[in-house]
Every structure is written in structure tokens, then in C-alpha cells.
Design brief:
0% strand; 254 residues; disordered N terminus; mainly alpha
Length: 254
């Protein structure tokens, strides 16, 4: 009588182990967390890369303008692969447009909030000018970028320039400003603010004694942003005393 061959049992391999699962074949909470962690990390990395590209473009374009900067310079400064640029922006013009929206439109929205409770057009302009000049002083890269944009062909139809023109028009329409030529008043006020910002930036760390003496001569009248605001209001038709009072008082309450 022959014996039937013994049944052999194979030792299960490590790779054959099944992943734990919940009853009824449902995935566990741990599995759900693991499946979403990688996409979440990927999204964060993508946002970080995009922000590095924006910061690099702002730094370069603030000193050389959009036309003077190449895409490879942006990616090199951001420490990002050249091809990765196109995962975030279609072109150099596209990243420039985002910079305008991000750094100027959002700041202009902040100014709108700061002046929302003000009804006097003179007060609105005074607060806006002083906040803009202080922002430029606190963030020189932003200030230099503002200078370039303020002198571009888009000055009238974008961001701060468009809103300044609107505020001047409102002041003239209400009779608060006695300006007869709105266009020239806009150019005079805008030009003065940009020139004052340029002077602020030039004096940061400046060691030239003559330049320092020039600005020190008026320091007893107040900081340069206050004096600029007051002079702009005088351009729009206010008397010196009232213009200075508005520039000092309203800003301290915003």
C-alpha cells in the first residue's frame, strides 16, 4: 500500500502580507491619512516654488524692469529648474502681471480699507500717500518696483495710479479741490510722490553729506512722507496750514 505524498506548506513571504483593512473592505483612517499626505506635501512644495519665483522676479524686475530680465535669470535666482517656470507661469509677461496684482492691487485694497471711514477726499489722499511712502521705505524692493510701474504706460489704468486719479476726480467733483486741470494735478501729485520715494530710497545708507544736509534742512517740519502729503494737498488747492494739519492728524488716527 502506497502512502500518499505529504502535503508541503510554503512559508509565507514578507511581501505576501496583506495591508490591514477595516471590516467590509473599507480603508482605515491611517490609510486615508497616508494617501492624502503625499498630495498635500506636493501642493505645499508647488506653492513654495511659485513664491520663490515671484520673489526672484520682483527683486530682478525692481532694478531692471520686465524687459531687462530673462526667464533663466529668474529661475537661477529662485534656485528652480528652468522648465519648472512653465508649471506656474506661461511667460515672463504673465509673472509680471501677477506681481502687479499681488504687490500693488492688494496694497491698494489695504488702502481702501484704511480710508473706508473717511469722507473728506483730502484726508483720503493724505493717508494714502503717507502709507504708500512708508511701505516703500520699509520694503525698498517694493519701493523700487513701484517707481518703475509708476513711470510705465500702465500708471493710469492700474493699481495705485488709477485710484489716485479717482480720488482727485472725486475731490474736484465735490468742490473740495480747486484744481481746474485734473490731468496735470494727477501728474504733479503722482510725480511728487514717486520723486519723494526715490529720494527716500537713495538716502537709505547714503553717506553723501550734501544730500543728507538737503533733507535735514526740512526735518523740523516733519518726516518726508508727511511733508510730501501736505505739499500734494497744496497742489490740489488747500492752504498750507490746513494741508499740514490734515497730513499730521488723520494719519495718526489710521
Amino acid at each position: 500500500m502506497t502512502k500518499s505524498p505529504a502535503t508541503t506548506h510554503k512559508k509565507p513571504s514578507a511581501t505576501a502580507k496583506k495591508k490591514p483593512s477595516a471590516p467590509n473592505g473599507k480603508t482605515t483612517s491611517a490609510q486615508n491619512i497616508a494617501s492624502t499626505a503625499a498630495p498635500a506635501r506636493g501642493a505645499r512644495r508647488k506653492l513654495q516654488t511659485r513664491q520663490r519665483l515671484l520673489d526672484a522676479a520682483l527683486s530682478l524686475m525692481s532694478s531692471r524692469g520686465m524687459e531687462g530680465v530673462a526667464i533663466n535669470e529668474i529661475t537661477d535666482k529662485a534656485d528652480v529648474g528652468f522648465g519648472s517656470f512653465y508649471n506656474h507661469f506661461e511667460s515672463k509677461e504673465a509673472i509680471y502681471a501677477v506681481l502687479i496684482d499681488t504687490f500693488f492691487e492688494e496694497f491698494a485694497d489695504t488702502l481702501e480699507e484704511s480710508t473706508a471711514n473717511l469722507e473728506d477726499p483730502a484726508e483720503i489722499i493724505a493717508v494714502s500717500i503717507r502709507h504708500t511712502m512708508r511701505r516703500a521705505s520699509d520694503d525698498p524692493v517694493w519701493g523700487r518696483f513701484l517707481l518703475r510701474e509708476g513711470l510705465s504706460e500702465h500708471a493710469l489704468d492700474r493699481g495705485l495710479g488709477r485710484r489716485l486719479l479717482r480720488d482727485i476726480q472725486n475731490g474736484v467733483a465735490s468742490g473740495r479741490f480747486g484744481a481746474a486741470d485734473i490731468t496735470m494735478c494727477f501728474l504733479a501729485v503722482g510725480g511728487m510722490v514717486l520723486t519723494a520715494i526715490a529720494a527716500q530710497l537713495a538716502l537709505l545708507g547714503h553717506t553723501d553729506a550734501q544730500a543728507k544736509a538737503l533733507f535735514a534742512a526740512g526735518e523740523h517740519l516733519g518726516p518726508i512722507d508727511q511733508r510730501t502729503s501736505a505739499m500734494c494737498l497744496q497742489i490740489l488747492g488747500l492752504k498750507q496750514k490746513e494741508a499740514m494739519a490734515i497730513s499730521i492728524g488723520v494719519f495718526e488716527n489710521t
